[in-house]
Amino acid sequence: MTFQGLFISFEGIDGAGKSTHIDALAQAFRSQGRAVTLTREPGGTPLAEKLRVLVLNDAMDAMTEALLVFAARRDHLQQLIEPALARGDVVLCDRFTDATFAYQGGGRGFDLKILSFLEQTVQFIRGPEADLIRSPDLTLWFDLAAETAAQRLAGARSPDKFEAEPVEFFRRVSEGYRQRMAACPGRFARIEADQTREAVWLDVLQAVQAKGWLA
Ligand code: TMP
Description:
Layout: E1 6-12, H1 19-30, E2 36-40, H2 46-57, H3 62-87, E3 90-94, H4 97-107, H5 112-122, E4 124-125, E5 132-133, E6 138-143, H6 146-153, H7 167-183, E7 188-192, H8 197-209
The chain binds thymidine-5'-phosphate.
């Protein structure tokens, strides 16, 4: 049986609690016979993982940060995401371009027009039948108040550069996500992340089932 590739991204501020649900969704797809590629951004390929270390640890201005995450994304798309989608895999990606609009655009205040230009350029894919700008088929946005996320993160492992940002930064990041969803409501499902893990999981499952991708 051949399947059409599916591209699902997971977004939210640090501490929103995406990780366990990404693994659970992978399991749900596999139990229905689908091959799953689990990946993340920045990262997912050897080169992009090297860029990730720089982005998460080294001080740099917002444009440098944006260029590095888009460079990582280009490699990730070419080396991993496009081949997986062509095979018919379900690609579950922990963060994608919405994170750039939310963190570099919202959080750092970097120019959204330049980000849009980079998005159109980096994600341009020449297809066998038609060219396209690759973006997720569905984005699950784990929405959690910045204050609640900060409480969850407090006392956790030593924070990276972003996790160490103040709560106001994450309010702006959340606003960045809100704007991305408003611009593209059909692609997004907003998950209320301030619930029990079980309730969040049911919402995740429902969002995917609503697309007809899981029984
Ligand atoms: P995470 O894998 O623990 O979520 O860490 C990735 C961090 O990188 C997270 O704080 C969000 C940030 N990030 C950006 O600032 N821009 C991006 O484009 C992406 C994908 C992530």
